[in-house]
Amino acid sequence: MNYRSKRLNGDTITPISIFHRLKGTKKFLLESSGAHDQKGRFSFIGVNPYKEIIGSKKNSTVINLTTGEEETIEQLPLEVVKEHTPNIDLPLPYAFYGGAIGYIGYDTIRQYEYIGEKLEDEIEMPDVHMMFYQDVIVFDHMKQKVTLLTMDLNGDREESILEERLVEMEEEIWTHEKPLKEEELHVSFQPSIQKSRFLEMVETAKRHIVEGDIFQVVLSQRMKASFEADPFTFYRKLRVANPSPYMYFIDFNDYIVLGASPESLIKTTGKEVITNPIAGTRPRGATEQEDAQLATELLADEKELAEHKMLVDLSRNDLGRVCEISSITIPKYMAIERYQHVMHIVSEVHGTLTDNYTGLDALISALPAGTVSGAPKIRAMQIINDLEDKKRGVYAGAVGYININGDLDLALAIRTMVIKGNNAYVQAGAGIVYDSDPESEYLETLNKARALLEVSKHDITH
């Protein structure tokens, strides 16, 4: 497979300026905080995908964006994505150098497990939407270098076309000056359900717990706002206010998905799989001493620890379906990780895929994360389906990439906003256990949403 690359000095440009200058449609930007560790070292930018796969239920549409040809087939969307992943390894030192970018929604699980009748689809988005790219820009923050990559994944590019595309990309970066917008954002979000209804949902969930149906369930609510601001300006403010391990801005043309997620749903490198359950939260302290005290309190909170241990067990079970049982380890267990505004208890569960499973199989096994569903997972999802009145969509699913060699890295879709038409949607949940206080759980959903909305001049009205 032919590809070409070119390295540029990146000391006078940024991923934001590169993204803003690139011409074309269906652009994406993937970033991570922590510019000098391996996770935060690289940012990835792309434009003009050559293929799209869009699917819901058991129907999938494959669109060749070069010719405009469409093919609709009766096949599970993730199976189609698997078939269209080239499985080509290139001698490049980047985790992503071409392939699929997009999301796998929470409701994709309906294709594999029965969790109840389908709910109202308020936003009207497919369960799976992946766009395939063969032109990618990699920004190396550590070395202050930019690498332009272009390849022939679609089978229709001669070497001369690849060389021309490199020239075009470089010209856009250096010559296509566009002033970045600076504006105050005035966005007022309203919950989609009444507070009294959410409190009832919590009480119902607690009855299920007392009756022994479940140990925990995560109930969520959606906030909606009229949105006429520039979405990329919102993202720029978000990445400064709430830097996170997974930051993304993906323009699908019909809608935009942007976010700053702290949590990985699944990551695979070759046959190695990692998932990192996060549960247990405290705000950051104003001083080092207060910060240390809050961390000590968090690790002594029996309720937080019990919830975290339950989620680690869920992750082990998820990986156990696709990995060698003897390979499953927990190299990081209940460690404190600090972010800009909060600290979390974090663990890492590792495993090695058996010969007959791929990274996408690991994704299917892990979807959705226990942190957004509950335990036992299937029964918890059935209760969610009974109590929530709308399809979750992107929220609680996954956002990220599938590299052309089959490796993938997908964030849990929390602290994520969907913008469609003139509306923006944010969703947040709270983990309900037997002694949950309904009022506190309601406020937790609002506080989690505020982590995303604090860049706006307005707040949630409730």
TrEMBL record:
InterPro entries: ADC_synthase, Anth_synth_I-like, Anth_synth_I_N, Anth_synth_I_PabB, Chorismate_C. Transmembrane segments: none annotated. It is an enzyme of class 4 (lyase). GO terms for molecular function: anthranilate synthase activity; metal ion binding. Residues 11-148 form the Anthranilate synthase component I N-terminal domain. Keywords: Amino-acid biosynthesis, Aromatic amino acid biosynthesis, Lyase, Magnesium, Metal-binding, Tryptophan biosynthesis. This is Anthranilate synthase component 1. It comes from Gracilibacillus dipsosauri.
